[in-house]
Amino acid sequence: MEGTVTAVSSDSGHGFTKPNRESVRLLTGLGVEGDAHAGVTVQHRSRVRRDPTQPNLRQVHLLQAELFDEVAAHGHRVAPGDLGENITTAGIDLLELPEGTLLRLGDEAVVRITGLRNPCYQIDRFSKGLLKEVVGRDAEGGPVRKAGVMGVVQQGGVVRPGDPVKAELPTGPHRPLERV
């Protein structure tokens, strides 16, 4: 499975959106250099309040650009970085990859997928009604999260728009992604 990086974004503050960059540097075991969510332990404010010693399974947020067209059909205008993602991709279905998938980004960087992003009410502050579009329901009424995947940096490196993304599936039984 292959795709392309379409945008990279980072922000040193804990704002909702992240400005696009020419490149980002991924740091092994930490996340995106200079990003507010980089660190060995959790950096997401609500999780820090609960237990600041938790491992940071959300070092890098990746989002599929195909979501932008999907939500545009429902009146929501979303661009790369708007939903707080660090890396926007195209051509690879991130949501269908199993836990533990390695994403090779560009020449050096490797991110291990840890789970699904669990979007919060702040999405509706960005665009009223968007939360309903990025968290749908399956036939049994269970949540279907479409706001991207989270991962940890296995190997650092610089990532730029236009870089290839290659998925390497884990060995053994595949576990579907759950929220992290």
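(ticket continues) Second input and output from the same batch:
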Amino acid sequence: MAEREGRDRAPAGATASRPRVPRLDQPRPPRRRVLPEWDPEAFGRLSEKIARFLGTGRFIVWMTVVIIVWVVWNIAAPDVVRFDSYPFIFLTLMLSLQASYAAPLILLAQNRQDDRDRVNLEQDRKQNERSIADTEYLTREIAALRAGLGEVATRDWIRSELQDLVRELETERTGRPAGRDADDR
């Protein structure tokens, strides 16, 4: 019976197959998704590129060229190939469609720029606070150094004290103040 129990057990060692227990110290393997993945910032970046292009002279020139070609084509071309007759309703529709897409794209780009400006403003404000704190600290340190230097003997003060001592010694030695000649008596 002991032999039979040994045969029924799973093999041990490198060939043993254990049930797969997920490890908590490693990330899960990526699962297949039904929908494709997309970068949420990609649309914002695209709208900024479009808004930048819409705000250039190049766009205005291209738009003018397209409208002129459109109008000339629909006036001068044979009736068979014309696709928009005189009141140019289709052209008006296309320009309205372009404007209806351009306005939200421009607003989205402005909102993203406002968010970036807000972050930059906050960083500048924090930097200014640090600069003010550093300046105040340095001001206090300079004031402390000045106060400390007020008590330090300067070269002129020591020189004047030494000159006073020399005069006193001279007075004691000769009985008269130093610096006077015998003629002055």
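Agent notes: Residues 89-150 form the longest helix (62 residues). The two ends are 140 Å apart (CA to CA). Closing as not reproducible unless the customer responds.
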